[in-house]
Design brief:
This protein is of the alpha+beta class. Helix content is 21%, strand content 22%.
Length: 180
């Protein structure tokens, strides 16, 4: 009997005709003209309207083998706690891979590198509130250890009493979270 073949995840390969480069995760200032802003789309503008820029973090995944001015391959947008203190939490607003680079494992690579970076920065929990159209990201997060954290035993009247070091949690929403 032969065993069923495992489906292999494709690895990132640089553009045809070039050798794969080294992938680098870097944080860039969160603003409309930032590298990665086009990948994130309208989520960046929305988050910057809702939260101070000092609490927004935009991370991009770039290939050092590509030209210096080349657009990033993927990007993630987060909001963290108080800017002058070690942020204990991060709220993930968006994580996406540029269209021509999808299906190559870059979303997983971005997420893995991002979680490692956040942990090194002192972040101890990451939250995500899935919305319509977030099925792929939700599946990626769940495969990376994020769990449904909807039932926290919190009442609606306490939703704004968690202080500066936790995200505003709506207990009736379907939150995903992961401790780092």
């Amino acid at each position: 009997m032969s065993s069923p073949s495992k489906k292999r995840r494709p690895r990132y390969a640089a553009s045809p005709g070039t050798s794969p480069g080294t992938l680098l995760l870097r944080e860039v200032p969160a603003h409309a003209g930032a590298p990665g802003a086009r990948i994130i789309g309208p989520a960046l503008e929305h988050v910057l309207r809702e939260a101070p820029a000092a609490r927004c973090r935009l991370y991009v995944l770039t290939d050092l083998g590509r030209p210096a001015g080349a657009a990033p391959l993927a990007a993630a947008l987060l909001e963290t706690g108080a800017p002058r203190h070690v942020p204990e939490w991060a709220l993930l607003h968006a994580l996406t891979v540029a269209v021509p680079h999808r299906g190559r494992g870059l979303g997983r690579r971005l997420l893995d590198d991002l979680l490692m970076e956040l942990r090194a920065d002192g972040v101890r929990a990451v939250w995500f509130l899935p919305g319509a159209g977030d099925d792929d990201l939700r599946a990626l997060l769940e495969s990376a250890g994020f769990r449904d954290d909807t039932d926290r035993g919190l009442s609606r009247e306490n939703e704004r009493t968690y202080g500066y070091d936790e995200p505003e949690i709506r207990p009736w929403a379907a939150w995903l979270s992961r401790e780092l």
